[in-house]
C-alpha cells in the first residue's frame, strides 16, 4: 500500500472515531444532568456509553492494525509518525488532534460523573445503614475473610 491509500484509510477511521467520540461526549454531558433518582435514564445512558466505547475500542484496534500495516508502531508515536509520512495536506493531523481533544474532554467529564455517582452511592449507603441500624463498613469482609455484620442495634424499620 502507498501513502495515498494510507491517507484514505486513516481519514476514514478517524472520521468514524470523531463521530463516535462526539456522540459519547453528548451522552456524557446528558448523564451529568440526570439525577441519581432517575435510574431508568441512567441505565439507558450507560447502555449507550458501553455501545459507543465498544465501537471506539474496535476503531482503535483497526487504526493500530492499519498503521502497523505501513510499518509503524501501534502507539501514539507510531500514529504521529504515520501521519507525518502520509499526510501532506495536514487533514489527518487536524483530525487526530481533534480526536485526542475530544477523548480528553470525554475522560474528564466521565471522571466527574463517576465522582458524583460515587458520592451519591455513599450517601444512599449511609442512609440505609442508619435506617437498618447498621454500622457503615467500607470493608465488606473481616480479617478471617467472612462477611461483616455491622449491626448497631435495632433497625428503625423494626422500631
Topology summary:
Blueprint: H1 3-33, H2 39-69, H3 76-86, H4 91-131
By CATH, the topology is: Methane Monooxygenase Hydroxylase, Chain G, domain 1
- The percentage of residues in β strands lies in under 5%
Order of helices and strands: HHHH
> Uncertain regions: pLDDT < 50 for 5+ in a row?
150-157
Computed Rg: 23 Å
Instruction: Give the strand tally.
Output: 0
CATH architecture: Up-down Bundle
Give the rounded overall mean pLDDT: 84
* CATH homologous superfamily grouping: FlgN-like
Structural category is mainly alpha
Question: Main beta sheet, described?
Answer: none
Straight-line N-to-C gap? 76 Å
Query: In the CATH hierarchy, what is the class?
Result: Mainly Alpha
Describe this structure in words.
It contains 4 helices and no strands. Helix content is 72%, strand content 0%. The C terminus is likely disordered. The chain has a single domain, classed as FlgN-like (Methane Monooxygenase Hydroxylase, Chain G, domain 1), CATH 1.20.58.300. It is mainly α and 159 residues long. Helix 1 runs antiparallel to helix 2, helix 1 crosses helix 3 and helix 1 packs parallel to helix 4.
